[in-house]
């Protein structure tokens, strides 16, 4: 990282692929993942070169949707182990530039806990990535309690990544699911995580929500109204508002000109992080996103590059104290 590292971006939402992973997915019949035209290209050298020209000091690599579980528990566990080992190898080759978020083979909770525990001991591992649902299992499911406890005990990050909802063939109406379905499924999953009390039972969890909170900013007041106005047992509007203030949010997707502004009206700017969503977002769109990050400012008057860089250093302060990532 350069001497000007305080102003370099930290990309918490950057994806990688491996030949073995794509072969496993296509072998399971996934040639058009989530209704997209096909699989993008990715290489380590290109990714690092793009970081250099974009002045991204550090990036967290992860496997995007559809994750690693294609229907067979044993195969999913093997694939999770493989991609995590490859990610760790990439991080060892660029220890000052790359970390990774481990893939886990949900909905097999026992295997997911086991792989999270193993992978979080690998070089470069800073947390885990979870899909918004795993074959219909959402993140507030009681069965996931051992996983949340294990992640909290390791003080690891959690990135929630949207995926296709159950019955996506019907709800998606033939359109690419990242356009609409991802946003609603991410919102549904985060709401379930909060309303089921996961963050209350595990206050040490550090959870990153992508895409400027998806539809959460639009529904924030409505959810608060229901919790306050119907006097139902369970969480209150205050609980919901407190949880929103504790979550972290990345800027992947289309934060400008409206989405990020609406989110910041609710949560402020101190929990906003940069996310590129590369390699699934085409390179020209990532570049355009960065132009806007540099020209738009947050409530403090600083560019979003400076705001998110400072926020990432606060989020990752524990990792920095342990030497991961260096010099953040």
TrEMBL record:
Pfam families: Amidohydro_2 (PF04909). GO terms for cellular component: cytosol. Keywords: Hydrolase, Lyase, Metal-binding, Zinc. Residues 10-294 form the Amidohydrolase-related domain. GO terms for biological process: secondary metabolic process. It catalyses: 6-methylsalicylate + H(+) = 3-methylphenol + CO2. This is 6-methylsalicylate decarboxylase. It is an enzyme of class 4 (lyase). SUPFAM superfamilies: Metallo-dependent hydrolases. GO terms for molecular function: 6-methylsalicylate decarboxylase activity; hydrolase activity; metal ion binding. Its EC number is 4.1.1.52.
